[in-house]
Amino acid sequence: MSRIAASAGDACVRAARPGDAPLLAAWNAAMAWETERKRLDPDVLARGVAAIFEQPARGHYFVAECVDADGTAHPAGCLLVTHEWSDWRCGDWWWIQSVYVVPECRRRGVYRALHEHIRNLARATPHVCGLRLYVEKANGDAQRTYATQGMADAGYFMFVEEFASR
């Protein structure tokens, strides 16, 4: 586990485990509602989270835990890393997705710990060419958070053609 000082204790980052799936699904639902006012179908979401554990080539979840003064750890946030092949760079972009930090743990270094953990893993992994993420245009707080971690606006618009949930 990576350990980093946070203002209210330590934030530890670990690979998510299958037993974390219900919490990850709940956090994804909370993030979708908070950032986009979207209600996600709980069954589809549960299957989507479970699919990451069933087929690890799809990506990996990471969980940050805050450690209280008494040594008790409690989940404080998460993110998902997925992969995109870049023929231009002959390497993989790691996409940071499904970022969530519980409200009472925000501004305490939880996302910083997650980001630094992922950055260190990516730099240590051959053929990873960088980190990417997308953020809602109106989510200024998240944009500032990502900028403080050294990320910059890539200058792209994102287009989508969405199909019905399966």
Please outline what is shown here.
By secondary structure, this protein is α+β, with helices and mostly antiparallel strands. The protein is built from 4 helices and 6 strands.
The strand order across the widest sheet is 1-2-3-4-5-6
Average of pLDDT: 92
Relevant CATH superfamily: Gcn5-related N-acetyltransferase (GNAT)
Level-1 CATH class name = Alpha Beta
Which structural category do the helix and sheet elements fall into? alpha+beta
Q: Biggest sheet: strands, sense, closure? A: 6 strands, mixed
> Which CATH architecture?
3-Layer(aba) Sandwich
Overall 3D geometry? globular
Helix content range of the residues, please? Answer: 25-40%
CATH fold call: Aminopeptidase
Please give the count of helices: 4
* Rg for CA atoms: 16 Å
Beta-strand content = 25-35%
Order of helices and strands: EEHHEEEHEH
Ranges with pLDDT <50 over ≥5 residues? Answer: 1-9
Cα separation of the termini: 36 Å
Domains counted in the coordinates: how many? 1
Total beta strands:
6
How would you characterize the overall build of this protein?
Strand 1 and strand 2 form a beta hairpin. The chain has a 6-stranded mixed sheet. It contains 4 helices and 6 strands. The chain has a single domain (about 1-150), classed as Gcn5-related N-acetyltransferase (GNAT) (Aminopeptidase, 3-Layer(aba) Sandwich), CATH 3.40.630. With about 170 residues, the protein is an alpha+beta fold. The chain has helices spanning about 20-35, 40-55, 110-125, 140-150, and strands at about 1-5, 10-15, 60-65, 75-85, 90-100, 130-135. Mean pLDDT is about 90; it is low at about 1-10.
